Amino acid sequence: MKIRELIEATGAEVLTNVSDENLDVRISTDTRTIQKGDFYLPLKGANFDGEKFIESAIEKGAVGAFCTEKNNIKDATVLKVSDTLTAYLQLANYKRNKLNYTVVAVTGSSGKTTTKELVASTLESKYRVFKTPLNHNNEIGFCQTIFEAPEDTEILVLEMGMRGLGEIELLSKYSEPDITIIANVGTAHIGRLGSRENIAKAKCEIVKHQRGNIFIAHNDDLIKKTVEFDGEQIYYSISDVKVAERRQNYSKFEYQNDTYELNVGGDYNIENALSAIITAKKLGLNTKEIQDGLKKYHPIEKRWEVVEAGGYKIINDSYNANPESMRVFVDTICSLYKDYTLILGDMGELGDNEINYHKELGRYINEKENLNKNCTVLSVGNLSKNITDEITKVKTCHFGDIESSISYIKDNIDKNSILFLKASRSMKFEQIIEKLK
Fold this sequence. Notes:
Elements: H1 3-10, E1 13-16, E2 27-28, E3 39-40, H2 54-59, E4 64-67, E5 77-80, H3 84-99, E6 102-107, H4 112-123, E7 129-131, H5 139-148, E8 155-159, H6 167-175, E9 179-182, H7 190-193, H8 196-203, E10 214-218, H9 221-226, E11 232-236, E12 242-247, E13 250-255, E14 258-262, H10 267-282, H11 287-295, E15 305-309, E16 312-316, H12 323-336, E17 340-345, H13 354-366, E18 376-380, H14 385-388, E19 395-399, H15 402-412, E20 418-422, H16 430-436
Parallel strand pairs: 2-3, 3-4, 4-5, 6-8, 6-9, 7-8, 9-10, 10-11, 16-20, 17-18, 17-20, 18-19
Antiparallel strand pairs: 1-5, 12-13, 13-14, 15-16
Helix pairs in contact: 1-3, 3-5, 4-10, 4-11, 12-13, 15-16
């Protein structure tokens, strides 16, 4: 952006101005990677204050910096704003409107990253698409995504995460989506929000500042009751399709008289793909383009990631976990696989009822009619013991840490049994793979 645009977008007070206002600059928020000619925007957090490094940024070649307090810097352009994160969001919004691409915004308690990837993969059949990089789904990640998007981007697919009320509304305000998608409303973050109703309220904030007129969501009465949107509302569910074939790494289904294929298994992936199909149709893709785009989709790291370690085949889905995603995880394994070992860890941020949520999952597994009676269910962590305590139909073991579970796996689990890993990210289940290797 040009320096004059930085001033225009943020309404900054110019403390010193030694640069040409038409000079093009790159926004940098990190002095460790700052380059000559960048413009430094210092962010603040609970444990850091980027403003302490303004002089360092200038010494490393930055032509200017934002600040919230007056300073004595004379040899660089200094712009004063009341809050640097707000300024970052304002700059991102300015850039979004300047390039004027179509924004597709995606949220959900679970499945939002998969949905984002499916939407992007499908739309790439026709358009130049840029999408939220992994773990960039908060307000800072949103800004980074905007500034990383190539100038020729036609469609921006944004993933929006939240930990409380008001956060998705903020992202909606500065992204101004054209199309919005809610993959589902579950119990992730219920410890912070208190109820599914509040989670729905937080997710439905995605339409607050929507400029387009298309809203797509999982067919859930709670979403329908909560969302306040005057445009077109489209709802989908697995009941809308006829599944023709289910395999471990393949799905084939019919939707609205057209047949589609996915190189992944699981009905929940089919369901997430429906939002991609609907979005693509609304943006003018034909059936062949949609079919081709869906077939190109492949899971990202830690999401149904197939790896080999220590002679075992492992399917790692430990990017995150909540009661809903755990259940569909178990459903998929039971319906598609024969020889398997489930390795389950703690689910985080479930609030006062966290023990009950883990017990309920254990009972759910125990009541599965198609659960292989020869499988073993291992639990690792503190809360996860409540899962295996409820399982009586198959062999179970609980471990307080990953190290002890590794020893058990090596000594007791047959190499023909596929290991399935699922836990909240804080459990660091990737260490199981590393230690088995």
